């Protein structure tokens, strides 16, 4: 490998979609190791000078006024799995008291055997589980390829024009992205291979094994090979990239190449074997709510309700809450059918809030999700939905699930974009989706610390984390004011959002050289940041007799 390849690899080393989805930094045992980021999202925009949701201020007000919650709220987390034994979660996990664990019998006759903590919609009854999956565009490409491969516009009937256009769109994206990720994977592997040589050369030049970025930058040499090594090491150190980071990146890139963009990979067909378009073909799944990768779901659950005041880990937003674990989101894209079944399970088993920190570009069986959302609406359940991490206007490019049926508005869905601790131009997360019509509010989603499996903690970014913080606000307020309807609660969270106005902020656009400024109230319906303190006060005012 030549040193020229190092430069190419570095330019692609950390793709936004991977960083956003998986966080950054090393796993830590103690959440407080993250210092300034630990629980920052609970801060107050005035008292603490950061755009948190004022959780501490809200609980101080509750204590001062001797208020007590009236109802425990069940929040269903539809995600990739939850470590229900995590030290900061085990005491707030929902338990199906009508089911006897491990007896192989559907004791409560709800159609699910041994569903103690919820249900895994990504498994076989024999206990095997789906891990990674295709992206939806890969599935669409695979299904349409036999019909349209090799055909041109002239070969297509009028009735098939729209479907053929979809085929051409997904084919182009599939082929371009698969080639891109394959190239980056190769380059990162090559970079990993030469890192020991780079380190050895720098150590020899400086005469020591430990050195600073400034010392590397200060190296002067006429040796072209060493110059490129210094440039590579400088970029790596500037980005904070370690060998462990690069190995982790390579693992994620392999998922893209081997699973997400691979028409020959069909995990569901092999493990579950159902018809993913038929909602009635639902005799699958198992009670393993953790599954093979519970990182994301555990992180989400922690933000909603990690046990408050126990002296360990982090504090969730809601303190009178139970978390129902529903595994329906694989690595890759979810199936509409699994999402629909998970929503229905949550509603039928008592959840009042459902957090949905997932999404995709295509929804071929959207009607299944729409019917489930309508069912939730009829039962007074609030859905809280992540806006997505593609720094895209979802008014123009939908991110599914979306708050619209065919011909109607979803009144019980709250869609959330991600904000940072900054009150100024950097307030929106640079990765966050936005939309004046389809994103309702923003909430903290940058540099957020939460729970990860095996009682560990981690820091990450994403609207996936803004959504559960908002779901926690909803659960907390609802526990004190249970007579509110889901629609009323949504309206209260939006109406009470803080920092509304015409302030100019940077339009989310990761990596753009020329940042564009926009008025913050053009990024979402409410024009502000969700806040539990102001939401509590508004709910108190609206319910006063």
Describe this structure in words.
By secondary structure, the chain is an alpha/beta fold. The protein folds into 2 domains: 3-11 and 137-260, no CATH class; 69-132 and 274-530, Rossmann fold (3-Layer(aba) Sandwich), CATH 3.40.50.200. The chain is 38% helix and 11% strand. It is built from 15 helices and 14 strands. The chain has helices at residues 3-11, 16-22, 55-64, 136-148, 161-206, 213-217, 224-239, 243-260, 267-271, 295-305, 336-348, 366-378, 463-480, 486-495, 532-543, and strands spanning 24-28, 73-79, 118-120, 321-327, 353-356, 382-386, 404-405, 408-409, 413-419, 441-444, 448-452, 456-460, 504-506, 517-519. The strands form 4 sheets. The protein has a 7-stranded parallel β-sheet with strand order 3-4-2-5-6-9-10, sandwiched between helices. α12 links the parallel β5 (353-356) and β6. The longest helix has 46 residues, at 161-206. Residues 1-27 have low confidence and may be disordered.
Quick structural overview:
This protein is an alpha/beta fold. Helix content is 38%, strand content 11%.
What is this structure's SSE topology?
Elements: H1 3-11, H2 16-22, E1 24-28, H3 55-64, E2 73-79, E3 118-120, H4 136-148, H5 161-206, H6 213-217, H7 224-239, H8 243-260, H9 267-271, H10 295-305, E4 321-327, H11 336-348, E5 353-356, H12 366-378, E6 382-386, E7 404-405, E8 408-409, E9 413-419, E10 441-444, E11 448-452, E12 456-460, H13 463-480, H14 486-495, E13 504-506, E14 517-519, H15 532-543
Helix pairs in contact: 1-5, 1-7, 3-15, 4-5, 5-7, 5-8, 10-13, 11-12, 13-15, 14-15
């Amino acid at each position: 490998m030549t040193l020229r390849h190092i430069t190419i690899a570095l330019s692609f080393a950390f793709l936004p979609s991977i960083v956003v989805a998986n966080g950054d930094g090393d796993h830590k045992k103690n959440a407080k190791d993250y210092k300034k980021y630990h629980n920052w999202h609970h801060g107050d925009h005035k008292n603490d000078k950061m755009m948190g949701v004022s959780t501490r201020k809200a609980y101080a007000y509750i204590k001062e006024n001797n208020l007590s919650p009236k109802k425990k709220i069940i929040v269903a987390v539809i995600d990739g799995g939850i470590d229900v034994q995590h030290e900061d979660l085990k005491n707030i996990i929902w338990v199906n008291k009508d089911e006897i664990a491990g007896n192989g019998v559907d004791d409560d006759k709800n159609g699910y055997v041994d569903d103690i903590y919820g249900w895994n919609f990504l498994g076989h009854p024999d206990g095997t589980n789906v891990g990674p999956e295709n992206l939806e565009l890969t599935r669409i490409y695979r299904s349409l390829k036999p019909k349209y491969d090799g055909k041109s516009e002239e070969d297509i009937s009028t009735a098939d024009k729209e479907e053929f256009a979809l085929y051409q769109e997904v084919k182009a994206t599939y082929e371009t992205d698969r080639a891109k990720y394959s190239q980056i994977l190769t380059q990162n592997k090559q970079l990993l291979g030469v890192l020991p040589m780079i380190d050895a050369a720098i150590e020899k030049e400086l005469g020591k094994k430990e050195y600073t970025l400034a010392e590397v930058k200060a190296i002067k040499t006429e040796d072209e090979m060493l110059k490129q090594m210094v440039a590579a090491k400088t970029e790596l150190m500037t980005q904070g990239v370690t060998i462990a980071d690069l190995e982790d990146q390579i693992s994620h890139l392999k998922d893209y190449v081997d699973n997400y963009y691979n028409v020959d990979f069909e995990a569901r067909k092999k493990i579950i074997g159902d018809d993913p378009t038929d909602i009635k073909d639902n005799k699958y799944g198992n009670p393993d709510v953790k599954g093979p990768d519970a990182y994301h779901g555990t992180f989400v659950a922690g933000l909603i309700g990690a046990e408050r005041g126990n002296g360990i880990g982090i504090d969730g937003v809601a303190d009178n809450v139970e978390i129902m674990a529903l595994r329906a989101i694989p690595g890759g894209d979810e199936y509409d059918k699994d999402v629909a079944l998970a929503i229905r399970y949550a509603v039928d088993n008592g959840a009042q809030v459902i957090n949905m920190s997932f999404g995709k570009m295509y929804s071929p069986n959207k009607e299944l999700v729409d019917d489930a959302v309508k069912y939730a609406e009829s039962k007074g359940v609030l859905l809280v939905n992540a806006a997505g991490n593609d720094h895209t206007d979802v008014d123009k490019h939908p991110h599914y699930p979306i708050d619209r049926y065919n011909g109607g508005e979803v009144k019980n869905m709250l869609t959330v974009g991600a904000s940072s601790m900054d009150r100024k131009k950097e307030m929106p997360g640079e990765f966050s989706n936005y939309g004046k019509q389809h994103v309702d509010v923003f909430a903290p989603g940058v540099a957020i610390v939460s729970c990860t499996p095996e009682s560990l903690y981690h820091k990450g970014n994403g609207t996936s984390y803004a959504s559960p913080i908002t779901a926690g606000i909803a659960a907390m307020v609802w526990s004190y004011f249970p007579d509110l309807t889901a629609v009323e609660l949504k309206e209260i969270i939006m109406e009470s959002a803080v920092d509304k106005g015409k302030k100019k902020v940077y339009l989310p656009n990761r990596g753009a050289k020329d940042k564009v400024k926009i008025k913050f109230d053009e990024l979402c319906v409410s024009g502000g940041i969700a806040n539990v303190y102001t939401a509590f006060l508004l709910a108190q005012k609206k319910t006063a007799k």
